[in-house]
Each structure stands twice: as structure tokens, then as C-alpha cells.
Amino acid sequence: DSDDITEVENYTKYKYAEPNAEYFGKGKGKNIIKIHLESFQSFLIDYELHGEEVTPFLNKLVHDQSEDFTYFDNFFHQTEQGKTADAELIMDTSLYGLPQGSAFVTKGTNTYQSLPAILGQQQDYTSAVFHGDNKSFWNRDEVYKHLGIDKFYDASYYDMSEENIINYGLKDKPFFKESMPILEDMEQPFYAHMMTLTHHHPYLIDEEDASIDPAETGDGSVDRYFQTARYLDESLEQFFNDLKEKGLYEDSIIMIYGDHYGISDNHNRAMEEITGEEITPLKNADLQRVPFMIKVPGVEGQGINHEYSGQIDVMPTMLHLLGIDARDYIQFGTDLFSEDHKEYVPFRNGNFMTDEYSYIDGKFYDSKTKEVIEEPTEEMQKMKEEVLHELELSDEVLYGDLLRFYTPNEDWEPVDATEYIYGKEYD
Ligand code: GP9
Ligand code: MN
Fold first, then answer.
1. What is the pLDDT of residues 119-142, one digit of tens each?
2. Residue 72, C-beta contacts closer than 8 angstroms, at least 6 positions apart
3. Ligand 1 pocket: which of 40, 104, 133 to mutate (most atoms within 8 A of CB)
4. CA of 3 to the centre of ligand 2 (A)
5. What percent of the residues of the chain are helix, what percent strand, and what percent coil, each to the nearest 5?
6. Which residues are identified as catalytic?
7. Backbone conformation region of residue 371, classed left if phi is above 0, alpha if psi is from -120 to 50, else beta
8. With a 6 A CB cut-off, is 84 part of the ligand 1 pocket?
9. How high is the pLDDT of residue 32?
10. What's the CA-to-centroid distance between 174 and ligand 2, angstroms?
């Protein structure tokens, strides 16, 4: 009830980080193009296989200062069983996914105060998700209405003929190609979420799409992982070229993120070959890094930013870039560009990382030496409790549908899901 939401509100207000004046409002009114890199782990960045870069295009965005991207190399996914759906939820609501199942499925009709809804209400943004799979996967066609997403371009908008599909659905190259005319026609400013699909377990690829040889660990999924990553990288380059050609690149905020791991710990033997290191519990946690990169027009890229951070931090960061104070909203993350950004990254199981130490499966480790900390300090123990408390509060919001009882400010209007209807026949 309303007492519970007051406790949550007190917590998120206490965690809140003030915006950084250098960034606040710098992206206001700009189109936002958010690009989902399916199953993409950060170890792929700069990784060389057979003496070749696997993802030369993404590597260029990371290293070439003139591209003006900022790449967070200590950014982690925080997903659980909801996988992609968890990543979507966490990034668009700054709430954690649930410890079990997928909130998209089980809490799909909850009240949300999401990034697309806030942008729509406060700055007249039009929002859309583009994804070459059936609309009901992960209950998207229901939950998107509650997130206030205006348009959902699902598989029915794309040419799903045999040569265009593999594995779960549309291949990334035709996906980006066919999305371009829709994107060009969208009312501006827009918040467009482009969700790729080909780089998904078990990493199937047609011969004509494979431009790098598989790895040679003998574990098929791991071996092909590099081939579909290369295909994704090429599809991105093609998309960037098209955006540039259509004049949509320069003046847009471009955000790129990885949703979750692609190689589970069932593949540790092969991953030991790939990384040249033993996959200990700590190493496995280290491998949960996914890319987060962002370019904001008129803002100089920082190159590589080492801040420890996670998907939960994305929504407050975006709000501040657009000049909307995150303080009013219930958010468990903090602005990545804030001086006061909270440098701890909770994982869904209560493990967490900070810049100095991590807590993994019951043990504390020093981030530099990788050694077990035999006598953790009181501060470390307190942080462990705080992480659990934070996750519990977030769960209360979802289980109790508590945002029903919360009014962020006088501008806010609850999202009315019945106002949204998806499908070609209604466009
Ligand atoms: C399906 C796609 C994959 O539409 O988002 O979901 P995942 O299996 O990665 O959660
Ligand atoms: Mn996924």
C-alpha cells in the first residue's frame, strides 16, 4: 500500500545522484536511437580470433575518438531468467527484474513510470520498438502498452521470407535495412529501440553470412559465437551508414547496449580456451560485462569510461541528458555521468561488484588482486545488506504493483494501456 511505496521512495531519494551540469539537458529534443546487441558480452570487444578482430566496427567506436562515443568497460548486465525481457525492463524503468521468471510475463499489466512514457509526456517524444520476432514473445505486445510505447514494429512489418530468417527470426541485416524507411517516417523527436536477434544462442549462421571462421574449441556454440558477433558488427556498420546517408546520425543520441551473457557457465571449458584463464566464480562474474556506449550530439566522447555501472543506471542517465530531473521518479539506478554516481552493481542473486571489491557466491574478492578477502570490513558487510535490501524494495514495487500509489509530480499522467494498439492493420 502507500506506506510501502513511501519506504521505497525514501530509499530511492536517498540513493539519488544529482545531475552533472556538463551533461544535464545536453541531449534535449534529440532523437534517441537505442541499439540492442543480442547476447553480446564485452570480452568480444578487441578480441582477436585467427589474428583478426571479431568486431572491427564496434572496436572503432570504442577507440576512435572522432566518433565521440563514450564506452563503459565496467558496465554489467543485471538480468536473470527474463533474459532480454529483463534487460528491457531494467533499462526502461530502473527497476530490477524478478528473482524468478520474467516480470514482462508475470507483471505485464502493472503500473509503470517508464522512460518512453515520461519522454512522451514531458517532451512529446514518439516511442517505438523494432524487433523481427513475433509480437507476443516475452508478452511484449501487452507490457509495451503499460510502458507507454507508441509503436511496436514486430515481425509482421518485415519480409520474413526463408532467406531472411534464421534461428528466432529476422536476420539483423535485413532487419536494419527494412527498419530504415519506418524510422525515417517517424514523428520526431523519437525514442527508437532497435532489437537485434541473430547473435542468439545457439548462434546459427548461414554460410554466406559468415565472414570469420569459427573458433576451434570443439564447443559449437562457443565456436559460432564469434561468427554471429561478426555478422552483428557488420549489420551495425550498415545501419550507421544508412543513418548517415539519411541524415539521422549526426543529430541523434545513439545508445548501444548488450542485454545479457551469451555463453553460460555450461561452457566453461571452452571459455577457458578462449580467455586463457580459469573460469572461477569471480572470473565468471567478470564475464558478465556487456557493452554500454553512448554518443550525444554536441558532447565530446570520453573514450573509455571505467565507472562500475549497470543496466539499472541507464534510465536516470537518459533523463538527465534530456534535462529531466530523475529525483521525482522511483529509480534504483543513478546517473552514470553524475559525480555522485553510486559505484556498486547488484546482480539479481545478491552478488555485487564495486570498483574496489566484489561479493560473489559468499566470498569477498579484491578487485585488483582478485584474491579472496578473508576478513571483510564492516563497510563491505553493510554493502552486502544494502544490496539485498535494494533488491527487496524493487521486488516489492513489482509484486505489490506499488507505482499505482505513487505520483511523481503534477505533470505525470498514469499510462492508459487501452490507448495503445499495435499492428499494421491499425496504422
Ligand atoms: C526473442 C528475443 C530473445 O524475441 O528477444 O530473447 P532471449 O532468449 O534472449 O531472452
Ligand atoms: Mn537476449
1. 999 999 999 999 999 999 999 999
2. 291, 292, 293, 305, 306, 307, 309, 336
3. 133
4. 36
5. 40, 15, 45
6. 84
7. beta
8. yes
9. 99
10. 19
pLDDT digits (tens, 9 = 90+) for 346-356: 999 999 999 99
Confidence of residue 382 (pLDDT cuts 50, 70, 90): very high
Phi and psi at residue 47, to the nearest 5°: -70, 135
Residue among 312, 304, 268 at smallest CA distance from 287: 268
Q: Rounded distance, CA 150 to CA 419, Å?
A: 9
Q: Give the atom of ligand 1 at the shortest distance from the alpha carbon of 86.
A: 10
168 lines ligand 1 (CB under 6 A): yes
pLDDT at 39 over 90: yes
Answer whether 137 contacts ligand 1 (Cβ < 6 A): yes
Q: Looking at ligand 1, which residue's alpha carbon is closest to its atom 6?
A: 84
With a 6 A CB cut-off, is 134 part of the ligand 1 pocket?
A: no
Q: What is the pLDDT of residues 302-343, one digit of tens each?
A: 999 999 999 999 999 999 999 999 999 999 999 999 999 999
In the reported structure, the alpha carbon of residue 217 is separated from the centroid of ligand 2 by a whole-number distance in angstroms of 23
What pairs with residue 345 in β-bridges? 353
Separation between Cα atoms, residue 320 and residue 327, nearest integer Å: 10
- Indicate which ligand has the atom closest to the C-alpha of 201: 1
ipTM at complex level = 0.99
> Is residue 201 within 6 Å of ligand 1 at its C-beta?
no
Q: Which residue spans within 87-171 are E strands per DSSP?
A: 126-131, 151-153, 165-166, 169-170
Q: Which residue owns the Cα nearest ligand 1 atom 7?
A: 84
Q: Work out which ligand 1 atom sits closest to the CA atom of 195.
A: 5
Closest ligand 1 atom to residue 168 Cα is 1
* Residue closest by Cα to atom 3 of ligand 1: 84
CB 29 within 8 A of CB 297: no
Torsions phi, psi of 269, nearest 5?
A: -60, -50
Which tens digits make up the pLDDT trace of 411-425?
999 999 999 999 999
- Is 92's C-beta closer than 6 angstroms to any atom of ligand 1? no
Please tell me if the CB atom of residue 348 comes closer than 6 angstroms to any atom of ligand 1: no
Mean pLDDT (the chain) is: 98
Give the number of the atom of ligand 1 that is nearest the alpha carbon of residue 131.
4
Give the length of the chain. 427
Q: How high is the pLDDT of residue 2?
A: 79
What's the CA gap between 98 and 20, in Å, rounded? 31
Whether pTM > 0.90 for this model: the answer is: yes
Residue 146 has pLDDT above 90, yes or no: yes
